[in-house]
Hints:
single chain, alpha/beta, two-stranded antiparallel sheet
Amino acid sequence: MLDVSPTSSGNRFRRARIGALSQLIRGVVVRKGHCRILDIGGTQAFWRTWRDLIDWRSVGITCLNRPGQAGENVADDAVEMQTGDARAMPEYDDRSFDICFSNSVIEHVGLWSDMIAMASEIRRLAPAYMIQTPNYWFPIEPHARTPFLHWLPEPLAYRIVMARKCGFWTRAETVDGALRTLQSARLLDARQMGALFPDAFIRRERFFGMTKSLIAVRDPSLRCPRGLSQDQALTKLGAPA
């Protein structure tokens, strides 16, 4: 059974992402001695789960969330909690961080213009980044845990959300509630991710041969050898495919 918990060490997809992220971190630490990470939408619980895979002596992490969405906040020397808006972060200067990281957030920020704003901020704030999002063309909607729901016309989809609980979504009592739930996540495909992050490799996470998630990865130290695809280049250069 697929482990979907964001704080479970049994989630093999997140384990692979953290493995790739740790390579980015090591590269920065070798060059600078310390790595500053901005995790957009991250939590302390997430980082505690993967603590054994990262050298905390050389890392400082800032988790940015909207007010009330950060979850538990406890004293932690390595993980700082902040509130803010992923679409506009004027509180941080250009290149305030070495790496920007985000799991399943960009599909929640709003319309395409909002996604553009978030992507622009990511590219401004750090020279390296790893940004994951569910793939629109994977047949199961990841938030509703429901096959094909995101492919249905909205007038049909909102009726399903009103009829029953769908995965992480509770049953909506009103049309307004159902539509707000549906529109809270706008899934992206690989071409859209490439447009948002034109200076990145777009990795594909596969589940039974299908692309489950897309990950935009920018590592300034990587170069794509002639004749190799982006996935092949990442594998050849040490990132898991």
